[in-house]
Specification:
PLC-like_Pdiesterase_TIM-brl, single chain, alpha/beta, EC 3.1.4.46, signal, TIM Barrel, 352 residues, GP_PDE_dom
């Protein structure tokens, strides 16, 4: 444990990370400032921008009338009040999405007009009760509205603000619903005047949609990977194979970056794995997901106290470790700028 504490103390000199400075990793607002506002709302995105995020990340799903909107999942009951709306009780369905049976209400069964009558709510109210105070205030935003917000904030602040949308469950939408998310996204970007010269990355856990995006556009692309499983469109392929040197060389033929779970980038003692070096040898950038402030999401040695909802400095330290590992950016639920941490606080937290 002493080795980790020493490493954490060294990292203090590297935080907070100031966005858009050469040599610093990009700060990507994970679903907006989702530790402070209900995720995927215009309020969450705006707060993240005001706190200095370089990029904001909308997760994209599709309505019945083929409008791209932002939700963590196409199932709506975790993030909206749809379950309490009697007029939509008959819309409840059970579907198989990426191999999992899911029961609930789905964005693709609602027109945009119907969806706009719903109101967003906090997905993790036990961990983020402060966010629940905002339940009922915000609508589900469209991609068009998100782009408009970014442009308005660029004009206000005088700085560029990037977009890094994730297309959610594209294989499910294509095979089960007959909806081509690649085509929808490229069409929407053309309509909105978003081009590959803008600070935009497009993400997916599936490989084939990225391959099609590579053929049809010049946007930068990110393959998302996690410790278990593999792409839904490649049932015989595992992410563990895709992040080997040989696998990464193949990934580089259709993507510009890998977005990896933190546990794939750092060992238990905080030292970097070989993934960053291997990816960069293949010509790929590396983004890490996700830094969250609450104890429940942090390694045991970085927690502050025993309350799962407790917040200390572990997320700031984790950002420092990832910076030292050489990542090009990281997703975070809360701004790290201005956070006050010291060696004694970190050592005490690490010893718990």
């Amino acid at each position: 444990m002493s080795r980790l504490v020493g490493m954490l103390a060294v990292m203090l000199a590297m935080v907070p990370v100031v966005p858009l400075h050469a040599g610093k990793p990009l700060v990507i607002a994970h679903r907006g400032a989702s530790a402070e506002r209900p995720e995927h709302t215009l309020s969450a995105y705006e707060r993240a921008i005001e706190q200095g995020a370089d990029y904001i990340e909308p997760d994209l799903v599709v309505t019945k009338d083929l409008v791209l909107v932002s939700r963590h999942e196409n199932e709506l009951s975790d993030t909206t009040d749809v379950a309490s709306r009697e007029e939509f009780e008959s819309r409840r369905r059970e579907k198989t999405i990426d191999g999992q049976r899911v029961n609930g209400w789905f964005a693709e069964d609602f027109t945009l007009e119907e969806l706009r009558t719903l109101r967003a709510k906090e997905r993790l109210p036990n961990l983020r009760p402060g966010n629940a105070r905002y339940n009922g205030l915000y609508q589900v935003p469209t991609l068009q509205e998100i782009v408009a917000l970014v442009r308005a904030k660029e004009a206000e602040t005088g700085r560029r603000i990037g977009l890094i949308p994730e297309i959610k469950h594209p294989t499910f939408f294509l095979q089960a619903e007959g909806i081509d998310m690649v085509d929808l996204l490229l069409k929407e970007f053309r309509t909105l005047g978003v081009t590959a010269q803008d600070p935009v990355y497009i993400q997916s856990f599936d490989a084939a949609p990225l391959g099609r995006l590579r053929q049809r556009s010049d946007f930068k692309l990110v393959l998302l990977v996690k410790p278990d499983g593999g792409p839904e469109d490649e049932p015989g392929l595992r992410y563990a194979e895709m992040v080997t040197p040989t696998g990464l060389a193949e990934v580089a033929t259709f993507a510009d970056a890998v977005g990896a779970h933190v546990g794939m980038l750092l060992g238990p003692d905080g030292s970097p794995t070989s993934l960053v070096a291997d990816a960069k040898a293949a010509g790929l950038q590396v983004f890490a997901w996700t830094i969250r402030p609450e104890n429940d999401f942090l390694p045991a040695q970085l927690r502050s106290g025993s309350d799962p909802a407790g917040v200390g400095c572990g997320d700031v330290v984790l950002a420092g470790l990832l910076t030292a590992a050489g990542v090009d950016g990281y997703f975070t639920d809360k701004s790290l700028a201005g956070r006050k941490c010291n060696t004694a606080m970190i050592a005490a937290g690490a010893d718990r």
